[in-house]
Amino acid sequence: MKGKVRNVNRLFVLFILILATLLTACSSDSDGGKITTSADSDLTPVTLQLKWVPQAQFAGYYVALEKGYYKEEGLDVTIAPGGPDIVPEQQVANGTADIGVDWVASLLPNIEQGMPLVQIAQIYQESGLLLVSKKDAGITSPKDLEGKKVGNWMGGNEFELLALFDKYGLDPNSDLSLEKQAFTMDQFIAGELDAASAMTYNEYHVVLESGVPASDLNVIDMNDEGVAMLEDNLFANKEWLEANKETAAKFLRASIKGWKDAIEDPEGAVDIIMAESEEGSSTREHQLTMMEEVAKLIVPEGFNADDIGKTNPDMFQQTADIAHKFGVIKEKAKVDEAFTNEIFEMATSK
């Protein structure tokens, strides 16, 4: 009888061990998002918080992870996807993530509100924002926007347009109609908007994919008009950074390497992205186009690829000035405190 009891106890312990293993293997983040990690107990953990879901917009980080560039730097990197309910600045400020990705115009008001954040790298050197119109709308220059219906997603995405209107003396409340644009191009395609906001790497190609040829479109580029604001950057919590400058430099060095690979081999980068994205969320063709367009923002014509990640003080100041003029921030930004190139210099001096 005692032998039977011991056998039962052994079986019970074995069952508990198996159950614990299964639960560990099946565990996921509490938000249900897909977390990508290079887990290794001997490495220094770093969590990167994206501003949106996995797509070619963030390809360099996934390439660096997949190819082991973070591990080579002694880092165990976790890439946390973003979404409509995730504010990267909040995640970094509260310590949930160590480094975040967002637009500079989103970072600045969070800094003004007291979050201890600082930009450590500028990945996109140019703005990807366009205003696109059909040729029959007769919008060949910004001054032709007078009397037109112009769409934008709002929520912080409209400030480059406000700067554009201001440059041409157009009052958005009386000279034209600035309307809320959905996160699709349906309104534009249906003719409900005369001009619509579109990112070079996303919505513009959605229009082309809908069957509207580029030859039937006119485009206003914020970079050409001198009202561009900086977009995807990397930022960190100041307190974390003070104690982890070497770790931040290692992360940036590996990320730059990942971005260079993604730009040189967009097909390979998209293979990695498609494996990370939710099934059916996008097509390979769309992601490849996105990767090719993103590359133009990271390394624009005439830009030295060795400076990927370096913040241009003049462009940062321009972004901050536009943000102040149109109420994104109440006070003029202390740009010398809002960003640093120290981490870039550390990352690229090796």
Note the topology.
Elements: H1 2-26, E1 36-37, E2 44-49, H2 59-66, H3 69-72, E3 75-80, H4 88-93, E4 99-100, H5 104-112, E5 117-122, E6 129-134, E7 149-152, H6 159-167, E8 177-180, H7 186-189, E9 195-199, H8 203-209, E10 217-221, E11 233-237, H9 238-243, H10 245-264, H11 266-276, H12 284-298, H13 313-325, H14 335-338, H15 342-348
Parallel strand pairs: 2-3, 2-4, 7-8, 7-9
Antiparallel strand pairs: 1-3, 4-11, 5-11, 6-9, 6-10
Helix pairs in contact: 2-10, 2-11, 10-11, 10-15, 11-12
Taken as a percent bin, the fraction of beta residues is 5-15%
Quickly give the CATH architecture of the largest domain. 3-Layer(aba) Sandwich
Shape: globular
Largest pleated sheet: 6 strands, mixed
What is the H/E order? Answer: HEEHHEHEHEEEHEHEHEEHHHHHHH
Name of the CATH class of the largest domain? Alpha Beta
CATH superfamily of the largest domain: Periplasmic binding protein-like II
The Cα radius of gyration reads: 23 Å
State the end-to-end CA separation: 70 Å
Helix content: 40-55%
Question: Could you list the spans in which at least 5 consecutive residues all have pLDDT below 50?
Answer: 1-9, 11-32
What's the number of helices?
Answer: 15
Average pLDDT rating:
90
Annotated CATH topology of the largest domain? D-Maltodextrin-Binding Protein, domain 2
Spatial sequence of strands, sheet with the most strands? 1-3-2-4-11-5
